[in-house]
Amino acid sequence: MAASQKTYRYKDQTFGSEREMVMHLLDDYRCVEGFAAQYLGAWKAISKEACVTGGLRTVCGREQLHADLLEARLRELGGTPQCKVPEERLAEMDYYGSEDHSDIEKLGKIASRLQEPEKVLQFLSQAIEQIDEDRDTRELLATILDDERSTIQWVLASWEDLKPQA
Ligand SMILES: [Fe+2]
């Protein structure tokens, strides 16, 4: 009987080796972060609430930094960027870049899907736990994870401050 082969999971995909998972993760996450930097940047450019603008400066900067670091690591490992933003997510660009929606509405929309930070970040923390050989990528991702926690904390705290009082 063949020895059971260890498998690796990222989001809803299974991989036969750590390297395969790492290469896919770096490309997928790079793409997601680059897109986040774009639509949050479009929002920042038209935001009216000074405290939203200020926070978005850091948040956007971080997302772009993550995209750049992930791409650099992907290339270092011999990969090339391939993932594209799914069609259905492109609407977010229109939404966040539109003045038809207030800063408060946009903040509320993001806050509503970030209520449970560790659950939201599980796709990343679970992948990190599976990385054993590539310590370099592992710590790159672990330190990005810390940034993501800071971003979520800012979104939730700002929403608490700015949300319409019942
Ligand atoms: Fe991010």
What does this molecule look like?
It is a single chain. With 166 residues, this protein is mostly helical. The protein has one domain: Ferritin (Up-down Bundle), CATH 1.20.1260. The chain is 68% helix and 4% strand. It has seven helices and two strands. The protein has helices at 18-46, 50-76, 91-96, 103-112, 117-120, 122-130, 135-162; strands spanning 8-10, 13-15. It has a two-stranded antiparallel ribbon. A hairpin with a 2-residue loop joins strand 1 (8-10) and strand 2. Helix 2 runs antiparallel to helix 7 (135-162), helix 4 (103-112) crosses helix 7 and helix 6 (122-130) runs antiparallel to helix 7. The protein is elongated and about 55 Å long. The relative contact order is 0.15. The structure holds fe (ii) ion (FE2). This is Ferritin/DPS protein domain-containing protein. It comes from Candidatus Entotheonella gemina. InterPro entries: Ferritin-like, Ferritin-like_SF.
Question: What keywords describe this structure?
Answer:
166 residues, mainly alpha, 68% helix, two-stranded antiparallel sheet, binds fe (ii) ion, Ferritin, elongated
In a few lines, what is going on in this structure?
With 166 residues, the protein is mainly alpha-helical.
SSE string, helices as H and strands as E: EEHHHHHHH
- The coarse silhouette is elongated
The percent range for strand residues is under 5%
Please summarize the sheet with the most strands. Answer: 2 strands, antiparallel
